[in-house]
Write a structure and sequence with these properties.
Layout: H1 7-10, H2 25-34, E1 46-54, E2 57-65, E3 71-76, H3 87-95, E4 98-103, H4 122-137, E5 144-149, H5 151-162, E6 169-175, H6 184-194, E7 200-202, H7 212-220, E8 227-229, H8 230-244, E9 254-258, H9 266-276, E10 281-285, H10 297-311
Parallel strand pairs: 3-4, 3-5, 5-6, 6-9, 9-10
Antiparallel strand pairs: 1-2, 2-4, 7-8
Length: 312
């Protein structure tokens, strides 16, 4: 990860993803800053950065192709994240021969919307449907595997349990999926007390990875929101009982969870997921924290080995 870039100068340059052309110097600066210039060490890899519209949102997305892709990975990031933080997963997927399609969620990264906020989790489903539409427009190779970290995992859970999953879907990979956050009862009480008086509170950065370089980078990342909006907490409070009451799915997701995760209530969440899916496969990683996509290398290699065995 190298020199800084200017997000406000990049956003107006983005064209529709399906028709985006050659990359500008500002796009290349963005890729360099986040280590997404993956073609430099994977010859033949091509990338494209663009946007598509969903309701009131301008959603920024990007796609990568290896020379001969054999499948596709659709990637959804976690809360406060954006596509730029997933270079390890992207590099692994390209090494597996997958094309990769991802987007920044509303209010995150380069996409439009109030910072880190949403009025209802149904808006996330609309964005995911838009991403599926982009995959179809780009004629990305099937099967389409799904990947979601934390809130990205929650979006995929919602889709699998309450939507109508498409027949071209392959495996679903969930990293530390959100059902309930840690200390949810206390957080909900705090939300109810604060909601009449404030629209947001300052964000508290946590040590959610054992990779010290990642934690340092997040502090200076220009695409990080610095607040926790009460609207987002309210949307989560309405979503949790709905997803916990959802019916059972016959799908069998691959679920990876760290036992040192202090962000989600992972024991409760895994119990919920055992009851929602047919034979889900779990990998519980000792000493791994919440941001699994950016954990230290030894932990990344363990879960990538687990995934290689199942997606080979």
């Amino acid at each position: 990860m190298s020199e800084s870039f200017q997000p406000d100068l990049l956003r107006p340059l983005l064209q529709p993803l399906a028709t985006a052309g050659d990359e500008s110097p500002r796009v290349r600066a963005y890729r360099r800053y986040y280590g997404l210039d993956l073609g430099e060490h994977r010859p033949g890899v091509q990338g494209r950065l663009g946007a598509f519209d969903v309701g009131p949102y301008r959603i920024v997305a990007q796609v990568w192709w290896p020379e001969r892709p054999r499948a596709t990975l659709l990637l959804l990031h976690g809360y406060y994240d954006h596509m730029g933080l997933y270079r390890h997963v992207l590099d692994w997927a390209l090494g597996m021969g997958f094309a990769v399609l991802s987007c920044d969620l509303p209010g995150h990264g380069l996409s439009s919307g109030a910072p880190a906020s949403i009025d209802d989790f149904a808006e996330y489903q609309a964005v995911f449907q838009g991403l599926l539409g982009e995959a179809a427009a780009l004629d990305l190779p099937k099967p389409w595997h799904l990947f979601g970290q934390s809130t990205g995992g929650a979006i995929l859970l919602d889709y699998l349990l309450t939507g109508a999953p498409r027949p071209e879907l392959g495996e679903t990979i969930l990293f530390a999926p959100l059902v309930r956050p840690r200390s949810w009862r206390l957080s909900k009480l705090s939300y109810q007390a604060l909601r009449p008086f404030v629209q947001s509170i300052p964000r508290r950065f946590t040590d959610n990875s054992s990779d010290a370089a990642f934690l340092e980078f997040i502090q200076r990342d220009p695409l990080q929101a610095r607040i926790l909006p009460t609207a987002w907490v309210g949307a989560l409070a309405r979503w949790i009982p709905r997803i916990e009451a959802a019916g059972r799915s016959e799908r069998s997701p691959l679920i990876i969870q760290g036992d040192a995760d202090l962000t989600v209530d992972w024991r409760h969440n895994l119990d919920v997921l055992r009851g929602k899916f047919r034979d889900p496969q779990f990998l519980l990683l000792a000493d791994a924290r919440h941001h699994l996509a950016n954990e230290r290398e030894a932990l990344r290699e363990r879960y990538f080995d687990f995934l290689r065995e199942r997606l080979a």
